[in-house]
């Protein structure tokens, strides 16, 4: 299933003791619909306050409910900030995490005189000017296969910090004449991401945009393999899991 959610009210995606999570809401909705206690698998965790446009989950069910009825049936049992937008049956070997071949995350910054109050939960607001061309140039140094230790939380438990970034781009929306501000979207597509990786990249790029670092410093930070060399971890509410692709979508490893 493909799931979208506004993560503002949740303590992340993954079930945690005594905390409100997106996984809890989904599993409760399945139980309400089928009477089954499922343990679903997701393409990846998102932290508290982080959103998803295209999270992918899978679970096993013995229900005879027709495939085309699953989305509507679950959405009537879910809170309004979680929507199941697609459902299909897959091979029993499918695993939402391990079968994924590409993921895209988007980080959004609103830059200018006034924030957009209607998007305040999904954009990090930066009131002063940012050099978007310098940020775009800095972002280009991250493409390729590298050790991304510098852009990974020290709390990471991964044995290897080597990942491949296939695409890294920055897009700007037109200036909103009323607010005198505009949205900057940073997109990163890779074969996998480390803990807080996109938020650390975003926090470092903001410093590049402020003129506190040069574009070329992104290359040097990457080569240093030290978290201390990168910038701060950007706020979670600007981050969104944008898309997850699998072999069956025509993407090959």
Brief write-up:
With 253 residues, the chain is an alpha+beta fold. It is built from five helices and ten strands.
Number of domains: 2
Which spans have pLDDT < 50 for at least 5 consecutive residues? 249-253
Helical amount = 10-25%
Structural class: alpha+beta
CATH homologous superfamily (4th level) name of the largest domain = Pseudouridine synthase I, catalytic domain, C-terminal subdomain
Question: Mind telling me which CATH architecture of the largest domain this is?
Answer: 2-Layer Sandwich
Mean pLDDT: 95
CATH class of the largest domain: Alpha Beta
Strand content: 25-35%
Instruction: Report the end-to-end length measured between terminal Cα atoms.
Output: 22 Å
Number of β-strand runs? 10
Report the order of strands and helices. EHEEHEEEHEEEHHE
* Global outline: globular
Gyration radius over CA: 19 Å
Described by strand count, sense and barrel closure, the largest sheet is: 10 strands, mixed
Number of helical elements:
5
Structure in words:
Substrate binds at residue 105. This protein has helices spanning 22-34, 70-75, 132-140, 197-209, 217-224, and strands spanning 2-5, 41-42, 51-58, 82-86, 100-112, 124-126, 144-147, 162-172, 181-190, 239-246. Strands 1, 2, 3, 4, 5, 6, 7, 8, 9 and 10 form a 10-stranded mixed beta sheet that branches. The longest helix has 13 residues, at 22-34. The chain has 253 residues and is of the alpha+beta class. It starts with a strand and ends in a 7-residue tail after the last strand. A hairpin with an 8-residue loop joins β2 (41-42) and β3. It has 2 domains: 2-86, Pseudouridine synthase I, catalytic domain, N-terminal subdomain (Alpha-Beta Plaits, 2-Layer Sandwich), CATH 3.30.70; 100-249, Pseudouridine synthase I, catalytic domain, C-terminal subdomain (Alpha-Beta Plaits). It is built from 5 helices and 10 strands.
